[in-house]
Amino acid sequence: MSDICYHRQMRTVNKRELNHRTAAVLDQVARTGEPVAVTDRGVPRWRITPFDEPGDALARAAREGRLTRASTAAGAWPQPARPGKMTPEDLSRLIADMKGDR
Asked: Residue 102 and residue 96: Cα distance in Å, rounded?
């Protein structure tokens, strides 16, 4: 599909090309999951996107790069030096240790 180009990180196709190659454009959207913008005289007017099932919001967000998976490298919780008898300094140190490099 040589006439499809990139426009603002979204593939675009003009209205005439869509009219001639509708099946190919729809197949591409279904295959890649990426939307295609349809232009009219160079101006984006419509967007063709794959149909998502109602429970597919997380998959769509991950595909669009809007979802960041949680890290699986969770460390052990630090244990207080003196359980039940912590000073404000002990609490501050414990919180700083839990935050790590953040």
From this structure: 9
CB 26 within 8 A of CB 1: no
CATH entry, 5-51, from 3.40.50.11720, 2.160.20.10, 3.40.50.2000, 3.40.1620.10: 3.40.1620.10
pLDDT tens for each residue of 34-80: 899 999 999 999 999 888 665 677 777 777 778 877 776 666 766 65
Q: 53: how many CB neighbours lie within 10 A of its CB?
A: 8
Distance of CA 14 to the CA centre of its chain: 26
pTM of the model: 0.46
Residue 86 burial (CB < 10 Å; 0-12/13-18/19+)?
A: middle
